[in-house]
Structures are given as structure tokens and as C-alpha cells.
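Lab notebook: predicted structure, single chain.

Context: the supervisor wants predicted structures on file for every construct in the current expression panel, including those that have not yet been purified. This is the next one on the list. No modifications to the sequence; it matches the entry in the shared construct table.
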Amino acid sequence: MKSKSSKKEIFGWCMFDFANSAYTTIIITAIFNAYFVSVIADAAIYGKGFGEFLWGSVAIPVSYFLIILTAPLFGAIADFTGSKKKFLFLSYIFCVIFTALLFFVKEGDLIPAIIMIILSNFAFASGENFTSSFLPELATKENMGKISGYAWAFGYWGGLISLGICLTVIILMKDTIDKTLPIRLTTLITAGFFGLSAIPAFLWLKERKAREELPEGYSLFSIGFKRLNDTYKNLKYFKELFKFLITFMIFNSGVMVVITFAAIYAINVLNFTMEENIFLIIIVNVTASIGAFIFGFVQDKTGSKTAILITLNLWLITIIWAYFTSTKESFWMLANVAGLALGSTQSASRAMVGLLSPESKSGEFFGFWGLAAKIGSIIGPGTFGILTLASGGNQRFAILATGIFFAAGIIGMLFCSEKKGILSAKTFEKRL
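Prediction complete. Output recorded below exactly as produced.
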């Protein structure tokens, strides 16, 4: 089955996932988050659990709250103006700049660190929505899962390579007088990796929609709100999509706990060293890329709903296993199962939104996808941070509670109809 676009354009689109994964891997998942908790918000100064609380219940949630306020509106404006690529470029530039500025954050610099994380993560998440909104233009219904899987697999290899570079720097500079310098240098590596690797996306990705004339009396913001209102009036065409988005919000809460706190959990509960933790994340990136790649084919064969249900069951197994594990060896094994689930869940969810979205509203609806994702990103890490603080730093209890999100996600998926959603999206597009 042929795609709607050239292989070069698909490769360019995949390269954006390759590039931006350096940010999530190094800043959010593997290195800077642990640096924030253990150094910037030193427990000896601020108290045990305070760093986790600031990270999971303040910095990350505030950045995602900004996405909740802006994502569907910006997506609707981008659809109307035919400027998804311009919006993507702006988000990319701002993320690179604010990530580089994290280099200057040292012990006790709580306010600057929180501000830079909020701004960089807001820019990253905005870009994630805009790049995903190109998927319905690049792929057909028959190969959307596969192409989404390709990109997500590319992304994990981007995270793997950037993490390998950071690990090399940390090892080579372990005897430096300033012990924070190697860690702070990883923020510059992340900014540089993202900045350079994303260039193919802007060279080859096409803006297909022409800019519409702005009606008299409207501004870009008011026309954006008008398009959102039109969506509300035509909600009957998007019932399955919004049922899925609610379900996605729930299970993504659990996914974001793992992304945000897995490295911290390994260090604080199982006494992983920073080097062991980075090696663990490298291996998980490999298994996640395998999961995204394989499940892309599975999704196109069995449907998105089935693929997502399989991954949610894998997540439940992983969470229960994490609660009971007490050895590093066992945690290494469960982390690889989590990797398979991670790559496949994210890729399949993005493709599901693509299947249920009319192409003319892809920016707007992937904005809603981003909104749902970020609400989950507030609920999940926020809940984990609060439970950890309330239990005096007991992260085992907090991780077990995460399983509720995946169980609820399984129930929610049973009420989503993929076939009805695809048909409704086609019906709406034919009306235009």
C-alpha cells in the first residue's frame, strides 16, 4: 500500500521524532530530572520528598497546563492559516533555547530551574502536537500505524544516541572539580542534538493547505475559537475520537508517571548509580524502539484498539512487578517489558488519533490529543509526587497506585469503536 507522500518526506518527518527525543530522554527521563531532585532541590536542605514534589507537582504540571490552555486553539489557527510547519518551527526554536539555558542552573537555583523547565517543556509539547498533526497527510488508513511506528522507533534511537553521548561525557569528566559540570553539559548536548537533527524535517516536510482569507471582523484568535465552536456543534461526528481521548488521558497518566519518575525510582528505591541508570535507559530505548516498530505492523493488521489493549495489559504487569521487585536484576528485566509497552502505546495512540481525525482538522484534533496527554501528564506525576510526599518518601506505594490508571484505560478502550470513528471522520470530510 502506497503512502500519500514521498519516502523523503516521511523520513524528514521521522527525523523530528529522532531529534526531539533527546529532550524527553535527557531532560525529563534520565539525567536532568534526577539532577533537579538530588542537587538543585537537595533533600538535606529542603527535606525528603520536596524535590519530587516540585518536579512532579509544580514544574511539569505547570508546563502542561499551558498546553491545555493553548493546544487546540493553536492547532485550529494553524489549520486555518496553513501554517502548521511555521508553528512547529517556533516551538522547536524555543525548546532548543530554553534547554540550553538550563546549563547555568546550579545547586539551590530552584526558581530559574523551574522557569526553564516550564518554558522548554511547553515548547517541546507544542512541537509534539504539531509534528503529529502531519500524520494524516503522510499516511493512509492502511499504513498509518506502520508510519507512526517508524517515527516513534526513530525517536527512541535519537534518545539512545543522545544519551550515549551524554554518558560518554559524564564518564570522561567524572574527576572534574565541578561535579555538576558534566551533568549541566548534557543540557547543551540536548539542545545541540535537537537543533541539528530536526533540520531534515524543515527541509522536506510539506505544508499542503493554503492559507484561508481571514473573514472581516475576525482576528486569528477569534477565528481559532470559531473553529473550536464549529467542532463542538459537529460533535456527533467525533464521538469515538473524544471517547478515545478521554481514555487516552487516563492511561497516559500512568505512562507519564513512568517517564517522569522511573529514573528517580531506580536511584532512590533500588540504589542505582547515575551511570547504571543511564545504561538502563539506553536499554529501555532499544526495547521501546522495537515495540514501536513491531506494533506499528500489528496495529495495521489487527487495528489500533487491539494493539492498545495489549500494551495496557503489559503496563499492568510491569507496575505490579515494580512494586514487588527488590533487586537491580529484576528491575532490569521489568524495565525492558516497560520499554516494549512504552513504544507501542505511544505510537499506537498517535495513529489512532490520526485515523479518527478529518485531515482538514488535523492540527486542531492533535491539539486536543496534546491537551488530553498533558492533563494526564498533570494527573499522573502530580499524584505520584503527592503520594510520595504524603507517605514520607515511600515510592513503592506511589508506583503501585499507578496501576489504577492502566486498569481504567483497559475498561475505557472497550467502549471505543475504531470502525465507527473512521467512518464518522470520512463522513465529516465529505461534507466540506
